[in-house]
Amino acid sequence: MKSLYLGLICLLLVTSCKTEKKEAPKPEEVKELTVAEKIAHAHGYENWKNVSKVKFTFKVDRDTIKGKGRSWQWFPKTDDIKMTAGETTVEYNRRQMDSTHISTDRGFINDKYWLFVPFQLVWDTSATISNPKKAEAPISKTEMDMITILYGNEGGYTPGDAYDIFYDENYMIKEWIFRKGNAEKPSMATTFENYQDFNGIKIAIDHKMDDGNWNLNFGDVSITLK
């Protein structure tokens, strides 16, 4: 009889072990993307890790006057920069700058910001981003979702500035308002239009003001993947 009991106990233990092995592994918890991350990914942020070179010309056209612009080559992996404006060419590395590069780098930060606004939302981790809300867009006067990115009062070339970013149901940026020093009234408002795809990264080529006689735009854009 004892032998029978021992046999049943062993059988139960073996069955229990087999059952435990068949238990399905728990699925990994999927982290919900923030609104800023959703906007960045809608513009192709998942491809940024493969970018080895960015080339573009930043221009501002007023009425019938076409801006000559300044051209940039940026190598994100090394932070090497080359700027050409007219007869002037400047080359430097953002990790090893000296005082002679500050003026050029200020221009680079400005121009790059306009080009990659959606990515700046996740790059600028020190900035504060508000919760989304419904608001009237400044140019189209239509209701859109809006978030505000606010920069601190210290650090950077333009501390304390704020940007109200208006985006559609697909998280594509359509318009924005720039408020210098987080002022209540807008300092500038423009559209984001004429989106083009560069190796999976979507960039708004044109940024127009309300009257249509001012257009900040990009030419000679290319994005090289490694």
Defining key terms:
226 residues, alpha+beta, seven-stranded antiparallel beta sheet, 13 strands, 22% helix, disordered N terminus
Please tell me about this protein's structure.
By secondary structure, the protein is an alpha+beta fold. It is built from four helices and 13 strands. Strands 4-3-2-1-13-12-11 form a seven-stranded antiparallel sheet, with helices on one face. Strands 5, 6, 7, 8, 9 and 10 form a six-stranded antiparallel sheet that branches. Strand 11 and strand 12 form a beta hairpin. Helix 2 packs across helix 4. The protein is globular, with a radius of gyration of 26 Å. The N and C termini lie far apart (74 Å). The N terminus is likely disordered.
- Report the uncertain regions: 1-20
Number of strands: 13
Strand order of the largest sheet: 4-3-2-1-13-12-11
Percentage of residues in DSSP E strands: 35-45%
Q: What's the end-to-end separation, in Å?
A: 74 Å
> What composes the largest sheet?
7 strands, antiparallel
Gyration radius over CA: 26 Å
Which percent range fits the helix content? 10-25%
Describe the global form.
globular
Order of helices and strands: HHEEEEHHEEEEEEEEE
Summarize this entry quickly.
This protein has 226 residues and is of the alpha+beta class. It has helices spanning 2-22, 35-42, 102-115, 117-123; strands at 51-62, 70-75, 80-85, 88-93, 128-129, 133-136, 143-150, 162-167, 173-179, 188-191, 193-198, 201-208, 214-225.
